[in-house]
Design brief:
Shape: globular
Radius of gyration: 26 Å
Helix content: 55-70%
Strand content: 5-15%
Strand order of the largest sheet: 1-2-4-3
Number of helices: 8
Amino acid sequence: MTFASESNGAAMREIFDFVAAAAPHFGQEIAAAGSIAVRFGRTQGGTPGEWRANSRSITLDLRRGSTAHLAGTAVFEILNAAAARRLAALEGEVRSGRLDVQAEQAGWPADQFFAMEVERIEWENGVRHREIVAGAGGAGSGADLFSAEGDFNAFYERQVRSGHTHSYEFRYSLLREEAASEARRRREAEEGGSSRGDRGHGSASHSSHRRHHRSHR
């Protein structure tokens, strides 16, 4: 894990020191997260920090919180990175249609069920974050972002009211559309291959018939 400090070096050093102090308390998650670069910048969603899977980086926005808050945010985003495989597996359930079955059995609309399960991952990360920060001696500090977090139901209801779940519901729809498009492409490719195979067989049969006809002349 690297901490870029091209500018605001003192702030990045404070964040690095906090994460280093917390590291013994979540070594498994750090290992699962893998190679990550932590840097300052503008977040796309207007939040204090965000995990960007494509670039394998955590962006912290100095405009969105104190250095202590951003230190806590860095720990949380590392947890999000560590949970990437779990999220990928959940998205795989959406693409395969298996999540729709689970949602129906639970009596939920599938898009809301998916959003709830993503929120569950984030809530569990928040609970874990509280344990890590306490272990690092940061309980009650600006880095303790989830000290007042309640049970999952209360958390989920708050996320729904804030509109936070909407992006996950949209993500569900996008995943289903991608899966449907891929299924259509495979079907068309299979039908095209079958059609070419039939033409080839017919041509060979016709040629054989012509040779047979000439042999009787």
